[in-house]
Amino acid sequence: MVEHGDIRVVRRGGSKINFRQPVITNDSRLLLCASGHSVKVFSTSTEECVHELRGHTDLVTGVVVKPSNHLQAYSCSLDGTIRLWDFTDGILIKTYDIGYSIYSIHTSAFHKGVVFTVTSTISDKKSESFQLVAVHLPQSGDQLVKAPELSAVISDVSSNPGAIVFGRGGEYIASANGLHLEVFFFKKQKTYRFFLKKDTKTGGKNTFMCVAAHPKDDCIATGHEDGKIRLWRNFNHQKEYTYSTLHWHSNAVSSMCFTPEGTNLLSGGVESVLVQWRYNDVSQRDFLPRLGAAITHIAVSPDGALSCTSHSDNKITIIQGIKVSAVLQGLVTGESVETDLMVDPRSKALVLNGKPGHLQFYSLKRDKLLYNLDIVQQEYIHELGLQQFKVVKVAFDASGNWMATVEERKQKDAEQELNLKLWAFDEQTQSFVLNTTVADPHESRITAMCFCQAAASQTTMLISASEDGHFKAWQLRRLAPGEDDGPSCLCDFVGAYRGLVPHCCCFSADGSLLAVSFQEVVTVWSPASWELLATLSQPPKAIRNLCFGRLSCSKYLLGTTDDHLLCCWNLLTCSLEWSTSMDISLLLGDPLTENIAAFCCHAGSTDLFVFKPSEPRPVFSLKAVCSGKVTHAVFAPREEMLESCEESSQWLNHSQLYFLTQCMDLMTFTTKAEEEKLMASSKQLLIDDSVAMTPFYLLLGKHRKGESGAAASGESAGRPPLPQGSGAVKELLRTPAHVLPSTSFLCSMFVKSLLVSVGDARSVESKPAEEEMESEKEEEDSEGDMESSASRPERGSLARRSAEPAAPPLTKAQLRELRRVKKLDHSWLTGLLRS
Amino acid sequence: MGEFKVHRVRFFDYMPSAIRAMVFSTRTERLALARADGALEIFNFSDNYFQEKVLPGHDGRAVEALCWVGPRLFSAGLNGEITEYDLENLRPRYTVEAYGGPIWTISVNSQGTLLAVGCEDGTVKMFEVLKERIQFQRNLDRQKGRIISLSWHPSGTLIAAGMMDMIRIFDAETGRATHRLLVDRGAGASKSKEVVVWSIAFLSDHTIISSDSAGKVQIWDGLNGTLIRTHLITKWDVLALSVSQDESSLVAGTSEGTVVQFQFISSTVDRLDKDWVRTRTFKNHSHDVRALAHTETAVVSGGMDTQLVVRPLLDKVEKNTRESAMRKVSFPHRSLVCCAKKAGLLLFQFPDHLELWRLGESDGYGKLGGSLPVKRGPEKLIQLKRKGEDHICCSALSPCGGWLAYSTVTSFRLYRLQNGSISICKVSKLPKDLLPAHQLCFSTNSSKLFASSSNSSVVVVALNELECKYLGTLKAKYGCRQPVHQLSASDNGKWLATANTDCEVHVYNLDKLKLHCTVPVYGSCPTAMAIHPTTSNLVVVHADQQIFEYSLVKKEYTEWSRRLQKQGLHSMWLERDTPITHVTFNPKNPAHIIVHDMFMFCIIDKSLHLLCVSLLEDHSLVVVERPLLDIVSQLPAPVRQKKFAT
After folding, report:
1. A281 touching B (Cβ < 8 Å)
2. Where is the signal peptide (chain B) (predicted)?
3. A144 in the same domain as A25
4. Residues 6 or more apart from B442 whose CB is under 8 A from it?
């Protein structure tokens, strides 16, 4: 096995923004939140991500604004460092190395040069306990500083940052853990501990969930598991302390926060209602209901104008007064992703279950939620134990014109309700529109569903396999504008095999074969005639996954079984080519290459193998990718191809592999080169401090640099000048409009930049344009389809890529020929020849 | 030990009366409690919350307010009278008409010299407390509208009065009103309704705290007459207020059955200025909390649901001790049931009538622990209504079932029951010495009746078919003034033991009609006692759950009793919160003592050295049950509250 040091597993895109409490800056314009391995800076008014502060090498576990300088912020991470950032410009100022994993960070104005962090106690690892440690940050000019001075303040604290809070100007710190509350007074160096019983007679559960401290009075509010809020007073007496109880929440209070003046207390929980209690008159309260999902964190801006709530569906809501003013939505990965990960071929967005009854389209490139599509189209009722419609399956056809969804509702004793919905892409609204609803398409739940991935014809075929022992083929037809009558969806064929339950189904790449697995038997059908061509079987255990090989390997069909066997059948000989024993939880084929990725569960962690079915050696393997089983993964095609020549990382050139870990974190693989590229773009921010850092500057600065570089190296290397103009244009177009200077100011420079090297730019730019036109024409000729433009550039680039290294100056005719050859898929032939 | 037949009696539908008012005296550590039927109860808080005395009610007397003046107890009611009570003879001492219509409140100044009463006609009347009586002194300025609540400033110069829609502050010397504080009405529909200031408290720093029918507790500055803060604590009425002795804590009782505590706390640790902050909420009642008392360590509350709840404040007592447990007193600490052992009859005592029942019979031999087939159901023989307006104070049924006696505070009646039949006739000729009694008891052979009367004396009357004859009066030593609340005659007719509320236990020799001996005085009040039929040992159970056995022959504690004291009782036994109300002996096994309290039966086996605590049956044992749920179901409906998820 080959270990590849330069490929790492990282979080990129789609990470949680609700992991820790967000921070609103003093001027209420920016919001900072920990997101995966970086800190994201959002604008509170436009919801746009302004900066991403990259630098930590592990999960960021806390962000706080530096009390002595409100333009800087500390962040801490599990990698054992605290980093100080200038968050308005996105510059890393300093890195303090602590040496221990940090779980949260707390600061107060009362303590200058000291931050408080929660680290795990080293003594025993089994029962993890945490302690609060004061870290004295040394004053030094260096970028990387070691902070050796640590002193323990409170032992046995909770790792939840919401359970530790500074009170009244930092004079004391309160920490709640389990069933006890601890208050430490810094001046007197005295600790007071208060204990509660686990359960009361009336069924109350007293476990502390979160703590908040009044900014002016000595009053600590604690939230409890049964939804009570206790306001503790007089806690500088071990015996004569007292508390009052507020009760509105019916479930655990997950977060609380006092407003800066201490007039209100905000609390939230599973009810997804923000409750505002008047501090002086707790019988009066205001509610902000229907926030969508359970509240996990609450934060208030220092001027009290804004408050924000984090929600369990990876969302941050910014609230002005008692009204929602902005919503920052991240990728929603609930407890279960029943639909599996999908990629929309048109928008290249990741598609999966989002809000209950919805599908979310998430752009991984921009790390932004594109839109939510309401599939179920029924009101979701927030009540425990209620059975509601769930989207369980989704499939896209190759062009992205059709989408099929399955929703089901399991009633307690009544039978299952199933709906198969077909959605057509509407060019005008740029979204999917419900085309057909098939109520009860099968008698039992649907186990698998797939579209015929072959090049689009007039009709598209959808296969659905169900537990009732049948699989059905549906013919989809897009209605011409004139004809109104006639169904657009017809059940074409119902197939069964010996009354067994079909479990997986899969189309070959060219759509000429359909493989359906019936328990331990794989049947191969011809969709054209609905003939059963062959049966392949590998008893005794049932087939778990099925996957056809692609391109040069398309004669192979791969399958995994429940008894940890990976089998590869040769479809030409209808015999087993090879098999190996592996506990594979997920088998996935890259749609653009021959590569097949297999996630293999081994000893509590998951290994990844990437292989070609025709080659015995895996292309890539990585041990211990993550702990737990990986059941959801997807190959997302890259927008721009990576030029990596290393053998081990070549499989990442065409597409990226994303997967969901057991704790529903979206992870991906990255190469060193890719990482360096990303770092370089963020490092650029540090180049020149003398000029104000605006996106416009960045654009022009890069331009200027490129220009000078080109001028310097122009003669010596003889390299043609780069098309800076197009780069600048791209940059210009990608930058949000609100951060750009006025158009009139830009225009002249922009035009000039285009003028500088007009000849070269034209020659490079016009060529792809021409090519595209060509390919369009060609497709029109052959199929007469107008709609498959989304996938076309990809295919064009593919062809170009394969052509370029061989002979760069190919004629158009040659190109066309080459493409046609490529399209015809001679893998069958090559396979035949080889065997 | 399962060798008993049990009669489970569930037809005693005793209904306690609602608690109307209560007042706590820190000097004597006693709580006086008034019920809606006019009965008064005195609880001794220093002696395990034992119900020491019960003063029976009176038809025309509805007590609205109570007041301790030193050891003297005064009450005032809607009949417009002020009554002082004779706590030694358990009866009203005298009554003074206030001539101001119904009286809503009574309050004494801290010096104990002046009583102020608030009347329906809007006057506050001052009465001077003299040694033997009270005397009207004067009226304060007459107001429009009734005076609902009164509170003296601790200096005794000012008095605050809660009225309809307002609070007035009077100068107690001149009688002039100095301030008029207007109380807001409730919001919404109740805007048109007058707000009633149900309760008021005047603190030494001139802070006035009021509670009213709009659900508010308001804190006022009494010097300037300004409102400092309003706490809205309920949608309904806040009926009662009570302030702790050191004025650092305050409780308010609401119609929802909750008691809300407020504390006087500084807002930050190092500052001195304090503020009243709402802190805890106790919910121990299902109905209105009408009366409250804030003792040093606990909050005592009572109301329409007839229970007295003692809720200790955990910051004032040691945790996990007997003091830190909550107590609920729902039944009187004395027996209201009398059982004629030989005749199988039961006598139930109600405030206004007596019921005589015959127990059911069964001939079958059932399985151990199973229920027997009933041959003849229980039968109600007689319902005897009392005469006069006074409520029944005590009653007794002779063991043979032939005699029935009851007493009110003014009269004593004896009835002759014909054997087995339903005829009853009053014995008209009674000896003159037979005065109204506190406690009645028949001898085992039904030939003698013992009636305790004033000064701890016991009158002995001989009964036979023709007449009843006065035999003599048993007198304890001189100076015993407390009433006798326990009487117990031995089976052989030789001994009679009496216990009074001064914790003294006297044993008399009935042959000589003379004091035989006095059991050494123990610091806690006896709650039940009995003389063993064969060994003539006296078993006494005290309010602090201690058990003593005293040999009448040797006039000393028995060996078992000494050993028990040395060993100490089990903490589970000591932590029970209801006193033992009855002691009997197992006739089959003389070493077994059977005791019961409100919740459980218990056999104490003397041959074993530890207490064997077990639920028990007896071969003609009668268990009278009164499920609390039945009482709750008979209460009027509580105020409507929106409950979550209903």
Report:
1. yes
2. none
3. yes
4. B396, B397, B398, B399, B403, B405, B448, B449, B450, B489
Give me the numbers of helices (H) and strands (E) for chain A, helices first please. Answer: 8, 57
Residue B198 makes CB contacts below 8 A (sequence gap 6+) with B148, B149, B162, B211, B212, B213, B237, B238, B239, B240, B241
Tens-place pLDDT, residues A793-812: 444 444 444 444 444 555 66
Q: Is residue A229 part of a domain?
A: yes
Does residue A237 share a domain with residue A199?
yes
Amino acid at A229: I
- Residue A713 pLDDT greater than 60, yes or no: no
pLDDT in tens, A513-566: 889 988 888 899 888 888 888 888 776 788 888 888 888 888 888 888 888 888
Q: How confident is the model at residue A722 (pLDDT cuts 50, 70, 90)?
A: very low
> What ipTM was predicted for this assembly?
0.72
Considering the domain architecture, whether residues A214 and A269 belong to the same structural domain is answered as yes
Token look-up 């060996």 returns B559
Q: What is the mean pLDDT of each run of 10 residues along chain B (646 residues)?
A: 64 83 89 90 86 85 88 90 87 88 91 90 90 88 88 91 91 88 80 88 92 90 90 88 90 90 81 82 87 89 88 75 75 79 80 82 64 73 83 85 84 79 73 78 84 82 78 76 83 84 85 83 84 83 84 84 79 73 73 70 52 37 65 67 60
Query: Are A191 and A293 in a shared domain?
Result: yes
Please state the pTM of the whole predicted model: 0.71
**A151 and A63: one domain?**
yes
Q: Is A671 exposed, middle or buried (0-12, 13-18, 19+ CB in 10 A)?
A: buried
Containing structural domain, residue A203 = 160-329
Q: Do B267 and A244 touch (CB under 8 A)?
A: no
Is residue A242 less than 8 Å (CB to CB) from chain B? yes
Residue in A217, A240, A282 nearest the CB of B315: A240
What strands, in cross-sheet order, belong to the sheet with B514-519?
B484-489, B495-500, B505-509, B514-519
Are both A140 and A192 inside the same structural domain? Answer: no
B263 contacts A242? CB cut-off 8 A: yes
**Within-domain flag for A717:** no
Better-predicted residue by pLDDT, A90 or A298: A298
| A175 within some domain | yes
Arithmetic mean of pLDDT over chain A: 78
Residue B629: the pLDDT is 67
User: Which domain-ending residue is among A137, A157, A177?
Assistant: A157
CATH of residue A243's domain is 2.130.10.10
Domains: count for chain A: 2
Minimum distance, in Å, between the CA of residue B432 and any CA atom of chain A: 57
Does residue A144 sit in the same domain as residue A164? no
Domain boundary among A329, A358, A393: A329
Interface of B with A (CB under 8 A): 230-233, 263, 265-269, 277-281, 315, 644-645
Rg (CA), chain B: 27
Please, how many CA atoms are within 13 Å of residue B217, restricted to the half-sphere of its CB? 27
Looking at the domain assignment, is residue A601 inside a domain?
no
Q: Considering CB atoms only, which of A231, A236, A245 is closest to B269?
A: A236
Nearest to B268 among A217, A241, A245 (CB): A217
Chain A, nearest residue to B260 by Cα = A244
Please indicate if any CB of chain B lies within 8 Å of the CB of A611: no
Of A765, A757, A763, the closest CA to residue A706 belongs to A757
Cβ contacts of A484 within 8 Å, gap of 6 or more: none
* Chain B residues lying within 8 Å of A185, measured CB to CB: 269
Residue A760 pLDDT more than 70? no
CA distance to partner chain A, nearest, from residue B646 (Å) = 14
Q: Is A760 helix (H, G, I), strand (E, B) or coil?
A: helix
| Judgement on whether residues A72 and A145 belong to the same structural domain of the protein | yes
B367 Cβ neighbours under 8 A, 6+ residues apart: none
Whole-number pLDDT of residue B529: 85
